[in-house]
UniProtKB/TrEMBL annotation:
This is SDR family oxidoreductase. One of its GO terms (biological process) is monocarboxylic acid metabolic process. The lineage of its organism: Bacteria, Pseudomonadati, Pseudomonadota, Alphaproteobacteria, Acetobacterales. It comes from the Bacteria. It comes from Rhodovarius crocodyli. Belongs to the short-chain dehydrogenases/reductases (SDR) family.
């Protein structure tokens, strides 16, 4: 279990859910981890403690991924000073706001788009020059199967996640010749705080309809992230891998 020995990984949204599972799996595989999160400092500190207990270095800071470039650049600068420059970026932080299309306010639309599409763009931009200068790097963006199949009540979320798939493919053209591999993960429904807000009937319907017969766990996505971050990811280019229990087959 040392696929990432000696590597430094930056993870956005590492305090809970998919980001936490990925931070712990990457650390288990030998990486030092810097992660951000939004406000939930106590949960974040527990993740950092678990990483340190594995003998790896950890840094975390609250940083709003919906903020302007200087805020995101300040996180990257602080994380780099603490641990060193990143070999891997797991661009994961996200939120969801559910409303019928006609009830979405402009502010809510902008918040969802900013945290996902703009935040991931700015985060990738902040680490990219260093990766290019070193001639190596992995950028893994977290999209969603909703970018591929749609869903009601989440139009801005679906738009943002489709934008992330587009960014992944377009950036892969530029970055791959420079040694930086860019790919995406598009999870299906995963048991995290994000889906905990859904009613019991939704969970039951998902379990009934998914060929896999269960929702995913954060670790299911972390293993895909590990594949893309490690030696197994060396020939993926602009791909969107979709661990989704059969929700979308493609
Ligand atoms: P979660 O709610 O369990 O965790 C979200 C993480 O992002 C936390 O660490 C939180 O502090 C951080 N975060 C939230 N807003 C932030 C902000 N403005 N700035 C910085 N950090 C912020 O969510 P989950 O489910 O782990 O989601 C992670 C990613 O996976 C998101 O991009 C989400 O859209 C995506 N995803 C989740 C699915 C699911 O079923 N849970 C399905 C498909 C995609």
């Amino acid at each position: 279990m040392s696929q990432l020995a000696g590597k430094i990984a930056f993870i956005t949204g590492g305090s809970r859910g998919i980001g936490r599972a990925t931070a712990l799996l990457f650390a288990e595989n030998g990486a030092d981890i810097a992660f951000n999160h939004f406000e939930d400092d106590a949960e974040a500190e527990k993740v950092a403690e678990a990483i340190r207990a594995m003998g790896r270095r950890a840094f975390h800071a609250s940083c709003d991924m919906g903020a302007d470039a200087p805020v995101i650049e300040a996180f990257v600068a602080a994380a780099t000073e603490a641990l060193g420059a990143p070999d891997i970026l797991f661009n994961n932080a996200g939120i969801n706001i559910r409303h019928p299309f006609g009830e979405y306010s402009q502010a809510e639309y902008e918040r969802v788009m900013n945290v996902h599409a703009r935040g991931m763009f700015l985060m990738a931009q902040a680490v990219y020059p260093g990766m290019v200068a070193r001639g190596a790097g992995r950028i893994i963006n977290v999209a969603s199967q909703i970018a591929l199949k749609g869903a009601p009540m989440v139009v801005p979320y679906a738009m943002a996640k489709a934008a992330i798939v587009g960014m992944t493919r377009a950036l892969a053209y530029e970055a791959t010749p420079k040694g930086v591999l860019v790919n995406a993960v598009a999870p299906g429904p995963i048991v995290t705080d994000m889906t905990a807000q859904r009613p019991r009937e939704w969970h039951e319907a998902m379990e009934k309809n998914l060929p896999m017969g269960r929702l995913g766990q954060p670790i299911d996505i972390a293993y895909t992230a590990l594949l893309l971050a490690g030696p197994g990811g060396s020939f993926y280019c602009g791909a969107t891998l979709s661990p989704n229990g059969g929700d979308v087959m493609h």
